[in-house]
């Protein structure tokens, strides 16, 4: 009985090591957020802004995976990232590819860079990266025009970066729905009106990764678990840990960028 248990545990640990060894290594410490579509670790954005981006970016991904859509262009994903500090500290193409934004390379990454002065965040640059397949529909020239028309909309106060971002975000979604998936209409104005109605409301806490998520993703953790079980320990003592990290994390569709980006 002991020998059988020993063999089972070691087979389990060997399988774990094989799986881990097949995983691609990461060249950056920046990981996607648990919501994936919005990464705002410094809380630069309003709570309603983050939830609005997540909600409608996820809706786009689900809509664009409809079976009626040509399979080669399904799975559009738009991800928004905020960054504090020197814009040159981050590589947008590396982030795009490691996060796998967009199925079928139908992804867009928007990075808003800020400098911090005291307790205030001062806008610096916006970086716009377009996936390889998406670039056949949305060019850098067109994306640049969207920024001019919507992010720099003179009707929105210059200090209101949340509203400026949402104005651009909905414009990008509108472009995708209308020009990629041939929707008949996308009422940009109605989405902005709905956003303004909740802009300063607290929707809900933004979920974040915890130490337990990192622990469960470590193969050393599972090796230790294997040894504990081997020497008579119970797997049930780990159940609270498993449940504490059971909330769903969203992820990319495996998309790539060839480095098609610009900065303003």
Molecular structure report:
With 264 residues, this protein is an alpha/beta fold. It has a domain of 182 residues: Diaminopimelate Epimerase, Chain A, domain 1 (Roll). The chain is built from 9 helices and 5 strands, in the order H-E-H-E-H-E-E-H-H-H-H-H-H-E. Strands 1-2-3-4-5 form a 5-stranded mixed beta sheet, sandwiched between helices. 31% of the residues are buried.
Key features of this structure:
alpha/beta; 264 residues; Diaminopimelate Epimerase, Chain A, domain 1; five-stranded mixed beta sheet; 9 helices; 5 strands
CATH class of the domain at 38-206 and 251-263: Alpha Beta
User: What is the H/E string?
Assistant: HEHEHEEHHHHHHE
**Shape category:** globular
- Strand content is 5-15%
Strand order of the largest sheet: 1-2-3-4-5
CATH topology of the domain at 38-206 and 251-263: Diaminopimelate Epimerase, Chain A, domain 1
Q: How would you sum up the major sheet?
A: 5 strands, mixed
Mean pLDDT: 86
**Low-pLDDT windows of residues:** 235-246
Q: What's the total count of β strands? A: 5
The helix content is 40-55%
Number of helices: 9
Radius of gyration over all CA atoms, rounded = 22 Å
First-residue to last-residue Cα separation: 67 Å
Structural class, by secondary structure, is alpha/beta
């Amino acid at each position: 009985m002991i020998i059988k248990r020993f063999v089972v545990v070691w087979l389990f640990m060997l399988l774990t090591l094989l799986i881990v060894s097949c995983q691609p290594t990461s060249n950056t410490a920046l990981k996607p957020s648990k919501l994936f579509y919005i990464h705002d670790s410094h809380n630069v954005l309003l709570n309603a802004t983050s939830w609005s981006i997540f909600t409608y970016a996820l809706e786009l991904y689900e809509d664009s995976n409809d079976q009626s859509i040509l399979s080669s262009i399904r799975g559009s994903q738009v991800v928004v990232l905020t960054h504090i500090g020197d814009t040159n500290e981050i590589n947008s193409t590396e982030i795009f590819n490691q996060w796998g934004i967009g199925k079928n390379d139908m992804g867009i990454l928007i990075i808003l860079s800020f400098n911090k002065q005291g307790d205030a965040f001062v806008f610096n640059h916006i970086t716009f990266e377009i996936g390889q397949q998406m670039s056949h529909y949305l060019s850098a020239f067109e994306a640049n025009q969207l920024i001019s028309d919507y992010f720099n909309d003179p009707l929105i106060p210059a200090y209101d970066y949340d509203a400026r971002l949402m104005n651009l975000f909905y414009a990008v979604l509108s472009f995708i729905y209308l020009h990629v998936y041939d929707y008949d209409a996308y009422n940009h104005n109605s989405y902005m009106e709905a956003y303004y109605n909740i802009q300063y409301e607290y929707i809900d806490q933004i979920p974040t990764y915890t130490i337990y998520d990192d622990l469960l993703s470590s193969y050393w953790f599972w090796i230790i678990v294997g040894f504990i079980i081997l020497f008579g320990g119970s797997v049930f003592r780990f159940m609270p840990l498993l449940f504490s990290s059971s909330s769903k994390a969203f992820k990319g569709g495996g998309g790539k960028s060839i480095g098609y980006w610009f900065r303003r």
